[in-house]
Amino acid sequence: MQSSARPSWRPYAAAALSIVLATLASTTVVSGPQDAGLLFAIFFGAVTFASWYGGLGPGVVATLLSYLVANWLFISERDQFAFNGTVFAYFFVCLAIAVFSEAMKQAVRQATLSAGQVSAILESMPDGFAALDDRRRFTYLNPGAQQVHRRHRPDAAGPPQWREFPPTSGALAETKLREAEERRVNVEFEHYFQPWQTWFEVNAALGSRGGLVIYFRDVTARKRAQDEERRLASIVDSSEDAILSIDLDEQITSWN
Questions:
Q1: Which residues contact 178 (CB under 8 A, 6 or more apart)?
Q2: How far is the C-alpha of 63 from the C-alpha of 135, rounded, in Å?
Q3: Which of 105, 135, 151, 223 has the fewest CB neighbours in a 10 Å radius?
């Protein structure tokens, strides 16, 4: 797969091009020292673009190039490269723009990476995850939830209706989902879907955009094992014979 990342030289080329364009614009509107403010504004714009596009490095390059070009073309020989308060302020503001832009780009990259990691986890896990909007319409189903949808309605091409979706159908599910919406709390419940004779363990919470996010998994095997344990325990307790449990040290641990 080909990478979509920008070539490393492109942000610096964009920084240089922005200074070239700013220089051309300055030559048409700057006629003398009285237009120094306009000159600074034009080069500030070029530095801001370079910083926004490339981050800290291109922003610094654009700052230095703009300083050199301004001194070479627009500043008199008597004042060239004089490091005064105006020059200091120009460097300070330009570098602040570059640092801020780099911080913003880093934050965006980190957020994108985190979102990608979450998406990869949701797509790879065997359990179901679904997201609904504030009108109870499904906006996302991971592969686990899609399998449940196809199993329930194999001929349905569109998204499922929440009232018909196995983990969210029934009176108990409706009550719990409304509780999550109205009280803005996380809810957890077990739901039995009679047509499949399947138990679902469901967790639901209010999402960031007002809709619900629902995580569910099939716990039928666990529920059947618990039922079997209770059945055996009932048989043991009701037996008229003496039944003892002894550990490896020959100590009695339980009896009927």
A1: none
A2: 51
A3: 135
Q: Is 4 left (phi over 0), alpha (psi -120 to 50) or beta?
A: alpha
Beta bridge partners of 252: 246
| pLDDT band (50, 70, 90) for residue 17 | very high
The secondary structure of residue 156, as a DSSP letter, is -
Tens of pLDDT along 122-136?
A: 777 889 998 888 888
Please name every residue paired with 191 in a beta bridge, in sequence order, or none if there are none.
Answer: 200
* Stated pTM of the model: 0.54
Place of tokens 């004779």: 197
97 CB burial (10 A radius; 0-12, 13-18, 19+): buried
Return the residue matching tokens 């018909």: 164
List, for residues 168-215, the tens digit of each pLDDT value: 888 888 899 889 988 999 999 998 988 888 999 999 998 877 789 999
Q: What is the DSSP string of 162-218?
A: TTTSGGG-SHHHHHHHHHHHHH---EEEEEEEGGGTEEEEEEEEE-TTSSEEEEEEE
For residues 113 and 107, give the distance between their C-alpha atoms in angstroms, rounded to a whole number: 10
